[in-house]
Amino acid sequence: MTEDTDVISHIKGQKAAMRPAERRVAEVVLKNPAKAMRLSTAALSDAASVSEPTVSRFCRALGYAGFPELKLKLAQQLATQAFAGRLELDSSDQAQVYSRKVLEAAQSGIGRFGRQLDHQVVELAVQQIAQAERVFIFGTGASGPVVMDAVYKFMKLKRGVVGHTDEWSQRMAVNELGPNDTIICISYTGRTISIVNVARLAREAGANVITITKAGAPLTEYSTAVIDVEAPEDTEVYLPRHSRLVHFAVSEVLAAGF
């Protein structure tokens, strides 16, 4: 696990595979993470009606040495989320305030991405781009400007780079893919049905699929290289700002590597 892994999402994802006693520990932690991180091992075991060794096994199942390390990761995640909340814009903000919020959010998002970036995945993605006869870059909605920016970068470096930001064009393009092609799918949520379907069809055709998205998202199921991008924002409510800036940074990294 990387330094900035989303601990709460990780617990949710691993819960189904745990033993019944360990699941009870997971339920207590997920019910109130802020309270759980203040508990001792003994107190958590009492709250979950399990033994203290079960708490230790629960932590090891998540990839942590013990409960103290899990508490530290929870504290870091909750602090990050609180920081993100302070950066949300308000209608009463003056220029000095909203300028600071936007710029601090950009610095925080890119800095966080840099700390969690898996450099081996970057090397793999660059290799897949370099070896491809054609490269297609797909994204919809707020990812559209990122797609076009990436196309501009790579067109100067490599022939046969095409970007599509609408579902119909993406489906037409994916029908022509083969084993010598690579596609790059950009999606903050990784749940956009059209993008997931395009990735699936590309893999069925034997093409490589590089995804810039959240770790564990449905889109990653069809990926040959996943560049994990997490940003503390709710894109169901707000237009994406932090994540989109990170996506632009990812395309810069890949272009530099190529």
Name the descriptors.
alpha/beta, globular, 12 helices, five-stranded parallel beta sheet
Task: Please provide a brief summary of the model.
This protein is α/β, with parallel strands linked by helices and 258 residues long. The chain has helices at 7-15, 20-31, 33-36, 41-48, 52-61, 67-86, 95-116, 119-131, 144-155, 167-174, 193-204, 242-257; strands at residues 134-138, 161-164, 181-186, 208-213, 225-228.
Describe this structure in words.
- This protein is 57% helix and 10% strand.
- It has 12 helices and 5 strands.
- It has helices at residues 7-15, 20-31, 33-36, 41-48, 52-61, 67-86, 95-116, 119-131, 144-155, 167-174, 193-204, 242-257; strands spanning 134-138, 161-164, 181-186, 208-213, 225-228.
- A 5-stranded parallel beta sheet has the order 2-1-3-4-5, with helices on both faces.
- α4 (41-48) packs across α5 (52-61), α8 packs across α12 (242-257) and α10 packs parallel to α11 (193-204).
- The longest helix is centred in the middle third of the chain and has 22 residues, at 95-116.
- It is globular.
- The two termini are 27 Å apart.
